[in-house]
Amino acid sequence: MVRIRPSRLAAAVVASLLTAPLTAQDAPPAAAPAPQGAGRIAWLNFQQVVANMPGYAAAESLLTSELASAREEVQRLQVRLDSMVSAYEQQQIALSPSVRQQRQQDIRDAQLRFQQRAQELEESYATKEREAIGPLEQRARAVVEGLRAERNLAIVFDISTPGSNIITADRALDITALAIQRLNAPQQ
């Protein structure tokens, strides 16, 4: 599942600005009225929006198979490394010091190769995830931005991530279903 992490600091700053009392010096000048809808907010579950988009199930299926394949390869490499270490431990007493040193170096080299390959697989998966999910997220963001502009909202919060700092909110402000509906509507 895609996780987008908003900055806790940014959320705290926005929350404090929304709840801070205005003083005379904070108030806008009488000649410059506040923009219409400046205090209007809404929220949505961005993960739910993306997960309900056309194409998400196929992307998730592809990523799941990629992840399973990477895990299998890592597991095979780990078994090979473990057996190499086990064989060394069983034979080390009978080995000459020079052969023992060489085997220890071989094990360190194998561990390094294992770590490098695991990192390569992780980076490859992250790239494939960005390629598969990124366009869906971009389209979802565009729809949410359209809803924000259409409804004249100042802020749309994402509640799908832990630490969003939203404890409770009015369900009438939830635009998740509307965003899903727009994303699933036939393209015109």
Kindly describe this structure:
The chain is mainly alpha-helical and 188 residues long. It has one domain: Skp domain (Protein Binding, DinI Protein, Chain A). Helix content is 62%, strand content 4%. It contains five helices and two strands. Helix 3 packs antiparallel against helix 4 and helix 4 packs across helix 5. The longest helix is centred in the middle third of the chain and has 54 residues. The N terminus is likely disordered.
Write a concise keyword list for the protein shown above.
188 residues; mainly alpha; two-stranded parallel sheet
Multimerization status: single chain
* CATH architecture classification: 2-Layer Sandwich
The proportion of strand residues reads: under 5%
Q: Determine Rg (CA atoms, Å).
A: 27 Å
Strand order of the largest sheet: 1-2
Helix content: 55-70%
Detail the poorly predicted runs. Answer: 1-35
Number of strands: 2
Give the class-level CATH name. Answer: Alpha Beta
Report on the biggest sheet. 2 strands, parallel
For CATH, the homologous superfamily is named as Skp domain
Q: What is the CATH topology assignment?
A: Protein Binding, DinI Protein, Chain A
Question: What is the distance, rounded to the nearest whole angstrom, between the alpha carbons of the first and last residues?
Answer: 29 Å
